[in-house]
Amino acid sequence: MSINLCFLIAGYLFVRDNKLTMEPSKEYLFTHKGFYFAANITTPEYLDSLETFEIRDSDVFIATYPKSGTVWTQNILSLIFHEGHRNGTENIDLMDRIPWLEYNTKHMDYSAFPSPRLFATHLPYYLTPRDLRNKRARVIYVTRNPKDVLVSYFHFSKIMVTLEKVSDFNIFMERFLAGKGKVSFLYAFYFPPPFTASFLRHYWRLEKHDDSSTE
């Protein structure tokens, strides 16, 4: 017997069918070590190379799930570190001020960046550089109500050429619940297993083990 669950999220009422399975298009995403990544702007080889990426103690990482306030936090952090209101840093492209670790689309030499370096990442904890997992640098983890993330991500996907456009909100949420998105983790305090928040839990363990390396 099929069990249907009803959800009301941000004004959207729809039914979730537990038997429904939908795979995202391989044109937009690929899987690597259990997670989804945007196609054409990074590679499995580059992702693997990040394991030995040299971390400095002064580095700062913003770790988020997509649509959880990443750009907002990037701008705040950039203003704090670079005093953009004084020297016009805000006129420099955000990707140059705080680049993405796993999506080095401009092929920048991160090792040549002056300290402190600022990075953004959607990487799961276990795919972050080894030195970062060994408590070097600082991590700012930004979380957001997953219901808001879902709706924001749905509308965002309609305007981003690198994301598959899913017009049916029901299908979009099915993929979201199944972890079939740009990265595949969910919030355990909203959805029971198998919708576990491995990403969030691992970053939380980093904070519990060493208060000096996370904020």
UniProtKB/TrEMBL annotation:
Enzyme Commission designation: 2.8.2.-
GO molecular function annotation: sulfotransferase activity
Keywords annotated in UniProt: Transferase
Span of domain Sulfotransferase: 57-182
Parts of the chain that traverse the membrane: none
Domain of life: Eukaryota
InterPro entries, A to Z: P-loop_NTPase, Sulfotransferase_dom
Family note: Belongs to the sulfotransferase 1 family.
Protein name, per record: Sulfotransferase
